[in-house]
Design a protein that fits this description.
This protein is α/β, with parallel strands linked by helices and 218 residues long. The chain is built from seven helices and ten strands. Bound molecules: adenosine-5'-diphosphate (ADP) and magnesium ion. Magnesium ion binds next to helix 1. This is ABC transporter ATP-binding protein.
Length: 218
């Protein structure tokens, strides 16, 4: 699903910051992996490259056989929208839209009819055990419930891979375990999932831990 060859990435500046150094990494279809490392080690930078949210300077990145390099912004957005589901620490739900509307939103941008979007969004909410919260606003949901809505939204476009950056970072440890169980269930259904975390308890619940220190995989 993912193949990185000798990836390097620097952020420009008076003194450029060399954030990723010769990253080589393969992630197979159906894996549940975590990327762990100290704050500032380059985890989010790596995940953003995997998610085609950011460019790299040298090396090669293949996503499901497609070389992700020097893409136009349109092509990058297309691939991102069709292949990747994102989950974030801060949920990134729209505060004035209810759970169902949040989950349905990616389908709105694809021109899917309201009736069809609502039907598909309800199916994903039910899959997340959130069917009875469809009309609640994010402010009326707990952290764990918000993350379930965000995961339902990530799934609605039927992505090839889920990328999650500190998805349990805002949750207490019990809720964090519940959200990890959601990821494990999705993985058992065949979804490829990459989770960035600094929480060993989260890493422990994945099938492989990739450790990164000072921009290198160790
Ligand atoms: P992590 O997610 O492991 O905490 P990041 O990938 O966010 O690490 O950051 C790695 C390093 O790159 C840090 O030193 C951070 O300050 C720096 N950095 C991250 N994003 C940018 C940016 N857009 N511009 C400049 N420096 C950045
Ligand atoms: Mg980070």
């Amino acid at each position: 699903m993912i193949s990185l060859k000798d990836i390097n990435k620097s952020y420009p500046g008076v003194v450029p910051l060399h954030v990723l150094k010769d990253i080589n990494l393969t992630i197979d279809k159906g894996e549940l992996v975590s990327i762990m490392g100290a704050s500032g080690s380059g985890k989010s930078t790596l995940l953003n490259i995997l998610g085609i949210l950011d460019n790299y300077d040298s090396g090669e990145y293949y996503l499901d056989g497609v070389l992700i390099k020097n893409l136009s912004e349109n092509k990058a957005a297309d691939l991102r929208n069709y292949m990747i589901g994102f989950v974030f620490q801060s949920f990134n739900l729209i505060s004035y839209k209810n759970a169902l509307e949040n989950v349905a939103l990616p389908l709105f941008y694809r021109g899917v009819s309201r009736r069809q979007r609502n039907k598909l969004a309800m199916e994903q909410l039910e899959r997340m055990g959130m069917g009875d919260r469809a009309t609640h606003l994010p402010s009326e949901l707990s952290g764990g419930q918000k993350q379930r809505v965000a995961i339902a939204r990530a799934l609605i476009t039927n992505p090839s891979i889920i990328l999650a950056d500190e998805p349990t970072g805002a949750l207490d440890s019990k809720t964090s375990k519940e959200v990890m169980q959601v990821f494990r269930d999705l993985n058992a259904d065949g979804m490829t999932i990459v989770i960035v975390t600094h929480d060993p308890g989260v890493g422990e619940q994945t099938n492989r831990i990739i450790r990164i220190a000072d921009g290198r995989i160790i």
